Amino acid sequence: MFDIDQIRADFPLLSQQVNGKPLVYFDNGATSQKPKVVLDAIQKYYTEINANIHRGVHTLSQKATDAYENARNIVQKHINAKHNYEVIFTAGTTHGINAVANGFTKYLQKDDEILISALEHHSNIVPWQMLCERTGALLKVIPINENGELILSDFEKQISNKTKIVAVNHISNALGTINPIKYIIDKAHQFGAAVLIDGAQAVPHLKPDVQELDCDFYVFSGHKMCAPTGVGILYGKEEWLQKLPPYQGGGEMIATVTFNKTTYADLPHKFEAGTPNIEAGIALGTAIEYLNTIGFDAIASYEKDLLEYATTKLLEIEGLKIIGTAQQKASVLSFIIDAIHPYDIGTIIDKMGIAVRTGHHCTQPIMDFFNIPGTVRASFAFYNTKEEIDMLVVALKKAKMMLS
Ligand SMILES: Cc1ncc(COP(=O)(O)O)c(CN[C@@H](CS)C(=O)O)c1O
Fold first, then answer.
1. What number of helices (H) and strands (E) belong to the chain?
2. What is the CATH number of the domain that holds 381?
3. Which residue's alpha carbon is nearest to atom 22 within ligand 1?
4. Domain span at 256
5. Separation in Å, CA 232 to CA 88, 112, 251, 279, 281
6. Which positions are annotated as active-site residues?
7. How many structural domains comprise the chain?
8. Is the ipTM of this complex over 0.90?
9. Which residue range or ranges hold the Aminotransferase class V domain (predicted)?
10. 121 CA distance to ligand 1 middle (Å)
11. pLDDT tens digits along 347-381
């Protein structure tokens, strides 16, 4: 186990006050905080090697290029991709999903099927609806049960030779449900379907092994895992990345351009048009090395303990109902208190220094399923503490009294 005081000292932002109270940051599902080593990496980039990459012959450009491509190699090793050119830098999860959905336009036809789940974030729903509009394909949805778990018996009836793509999240951002993605991937491959895994909420908590999973695509955002916003990763199997057309045209992604014809660059640059978010890509590499130094086994064990403690303590609050009670959960607690609107609860406890997310969390279909306007979501990270959870409980009891 790690020294939580040392860990918290790594994060400058955590020591601040909000509304005159110590900040309790429980909105890690929205974005994580950044350790000093990541902030230093950004500063070092801009003060020592800032230059555009891949095209300059001068020393600074070469140094920046080496740092950026080294970050790609760090990501490749982290997710155990077979080749570093299967690791595409994107702007984030949403960008990665859109790039894949756009690429499938040429491969789908009327009545083909795209299978997603009722747990999906809007970023893993809307791009597929847009693909259906472009191609006449049909969107199918794996339902969930009252615990917020996928109903696999329905999935087994839905998957067929008509299914061309299965796109599901690894971990639900709204409920914390950890999905059985290895089973889903293997089953989908039996019917010849490609599988995209939305790993946005997984990468802060675990280390995905894309070869062991055998997924065709795996997407995530840097800002969920201690890296800056504006950078993400699209992992794709080489065979698929070679088949899919580029998502955006422009500089960097070309080999030759004439007015008659353009040929595209080799992987990974075919999917990396324009000047990327260089410092964020480098800082993502730093963030991954920082997390691996702590260790994902230690992070998972600590967060499991936090979740169990928080679940027990919150359930002591009369009228509090947890939404999302899956057997397998990451450290996310969504809940409602009586008929109090989540937004009112979030607003009140913010005055006490506590940051949570309230609302539909970009998963309106989940809220429709539970017939609620939204939830209060507390999402924990390895730098949160049980003392902070105790502060949340006190604040919620005060808010309940004020709002009842
Ligand atoms: C499962 C899942 N899939 C996609 C996204 C989008 O990530 P971007 O970095 O914005 O592209 C998110 C981001 N969820 C944030 C913002 S809504 C949350 O508070 O839950 C996600 O959780």
1. 14, 17
2. 3.90.1150.10
3. 173
4. 39-292
5. 8, 29, 20, 12, 8
6. 362
7. 2
8. yes
9. 24-392
10. 7
11. 999 999 999 999 999 999 999 999 999 999 999 99
